[in-house]
């Protein structure tokens, strides 16, 4: 394994290796899903739909061309759960765990791969970080599975404890990894009035999308109980923007739908519908209602929220919350006539500002290109709002849909698959695929002013 990694590292960059690894996992998942043991008797699954499901599973998106509950057997759903883990926790993290279980040492080249896959800036403490990350993720999923399993059985949703814990495990894993898959057949529409299931689901979605570095820092804060504990700037910006997005999204949905979809709803129904839809747009994909029934302005707001996505180093996609935060801070800084972007009494590095605009611009170009191409390929078979919503959901790896996924053409599904894959690996990884190394400029051209704006 070491020699193979070393030989391969001389031929391709670490980013290219990671992307190829995710592509390999998708291929393996596809092969497993098309096996007869993965499909229920009488159900049909084409190769393109199996590939679409595999991409959606590994990218933890949740868009499906077939009904998961009606198509896949118990074995097939476990294959999906494993793909959620690869996509949500990270392929290098799971590889590291396997390596540690086998008692092997983690080489420097492998540590570099972990660093890139987990979006870290240095090599120190990576193995300990991965070990903590894995146990934290598996612990949260196990706790969620136990809570759901006991609740489902006590409430009489299922006849046996085995069935209750099976459904509880799948829903817990799908929620924490923000995969957005369900085995009920209608997402969480059956629990539209069950606020306990919704609350635990929202909590799992939140913990998965807030980002591993934030969870680890909060754990350190609780463990040390040091009043002088200082959170990093990353954690402060991420947490603040994440909460702001949830509140702003919920308020927008509540206001826009107050006299529309919410017209005949009680105050608590309005509250949970607004809050759940705001949180699930971070990258969750689960829904307690048909989002196609929303007012078009609300659907557009949801599309924007999905485009922004979750936090960096999390299970979600999109341009990420910190990117959007730095964009807003930079605009404010420029409007105030300042030259340095500041937040929480810290200055943001110019390189991070530059990255934010690169990620935002590239993401916007990809989404616009995806919308235009998909609408053209499908020959305007669907409304433009449906296409915008579908593309934004794929790029943000959210998984919400207005019901057009299964009716897409083969080319249309390929477009959505490409967007889901990019959403999982991230914009910077996509751009780094074409980078062969850091080139230093040996000379500079004369600078000249250009009129802007």
Task: Please describe what this structure looks like.
This protein is mostly helical. It has one domain. The chain has helices at residues 2-9, 14-33, 47-58, 68-71, 74-88, 91-101, 108-117, 126-154, 161-176, 195-209, 212-224, 233-256, 267-280, 296-308, 321-335, 350-377, 384-395, 410-425, 427-432, and strands spanning 342-343, 346-347. Strands 1-2 form a two-stranded antiparallel sheet. It is globular. The mean pLDDT is 86. One of its GO terms (biological process) is metal ion transport. One of its GO terms (cellular component) is plasma membrane. Pfam families: TrkH.
Produce a short descriptive summary.
By secondary structure, the chain is mostly helical. It is 62% helix and 1% strand. β1 and β2 form a beta hairpin.
Number of strand elements: 2
Regions with little confidence, pLDDT below 50 for 5+ residues: none
Cα shape:
globular
Q: Main beta sheet, described?
A: 2 strands, antiparallel
Count of the separate structural domains = 1
Helix-strand pattern, N to C?
HHHHHHHHHHHHHHHEEHHHH
Q: Find the structural class using helix and strand composition.
A: mainly alpha
Keywords: Cell membrane, Ion transport, Membrane, Transmembrane, Transmembrane helix, Transport
Membrane topology: Multi-pass membrane protein
Main location: membrane
GO molecular function, one term: monoatomic cation transmembrane transporter activity
């Amino acid at each position: 394994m070491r020699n193979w990694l070393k030989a391969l590292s001389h031929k391709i960059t670490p980013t290219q290796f990671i992307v190829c690894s995710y592509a390999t996992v998708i291929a393996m998942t596809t092969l497993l899903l098309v096996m007869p043991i993965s499909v229920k008797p009488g159900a049909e699954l084409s190769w393109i739909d199996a590939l679409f499901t595999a991409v959606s599973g590994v990218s933890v998106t949740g868009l499906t061309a077939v009904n998961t509950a009606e198509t896949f057997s118990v074995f097939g759903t476990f294959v999906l759960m494993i793909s959620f883990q690869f996509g949500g926790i990270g392929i290098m993290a799971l590889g590291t765990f396997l390596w540690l279980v086998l008692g092997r040492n983690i080489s420097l080249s492998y540590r570099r791969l972990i660093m890139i896959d987990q979006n870290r800036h240095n090599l120190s403490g990576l193995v300990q970080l991965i070990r903590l990350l894995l146990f934290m993720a598996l612990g949260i999923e196990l706790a969620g599975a136990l809570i759901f399993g006991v609740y489902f059985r006590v409430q009489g949703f299922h006849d046996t404890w085995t069935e209750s814990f099976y459904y509880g495990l799948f829903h817990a894993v799908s929620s924490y990894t923000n995969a957005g898959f369900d085995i009920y057949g209608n997402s969480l529409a059956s629990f539209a009035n069950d606020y306990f299931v919704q609350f635990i689901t929202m909590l799992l979605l939140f913990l998965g999308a807030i980002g591993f570095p934030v969870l680890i820092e909060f754990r350190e804060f609780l463990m040390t109980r040091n009043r002088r504990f200082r959170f990093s700037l990353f954690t402060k910006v991420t947490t603040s923007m994440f909460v702001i997005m949830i509140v702003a999204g919920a308020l927008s949905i509540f206001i826009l739908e107050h006299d529309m979809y919410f017209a005949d709803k009680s105050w608590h129904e309005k509250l949970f519908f607004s809050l759940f839809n705001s949180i699930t747009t971070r990258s969750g994909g689960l829904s307690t209602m048909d989002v196609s029934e929303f007012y078009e302005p609300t659907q557009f707001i949801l599309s924007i929220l999905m485009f922004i996505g979750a936090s960096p180093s999390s299970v979600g996609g999109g341009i990420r919350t910190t990117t959007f935060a730095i964009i807003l801070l930079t605009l404010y800084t420029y409007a105030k006539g300042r030259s340095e972007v500041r937040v929480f009494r810290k200055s943001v590095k110019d390189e991070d500002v530059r990255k934010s605009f690169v990620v935002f611009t590239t993401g916007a170009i990809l989404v616009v290109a995806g919308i235009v191409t998909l609408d053209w390929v499908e020959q305007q078979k669907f409304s433009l709002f449906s296409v915008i919503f579908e593309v934004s959901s794929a790029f943000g790896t959210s998984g919400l849909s207005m019901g057009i996924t299964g009716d897409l053409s083969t080319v249309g599904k390929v477009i959505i698959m490409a967007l889901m894959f990019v959403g999982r690996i991230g914009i910077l990884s996509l751009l780094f695929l074409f980078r062969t190394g850091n080139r230093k400029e040996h000379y500079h051209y004369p600078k000249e002013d250009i009129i802007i704006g």
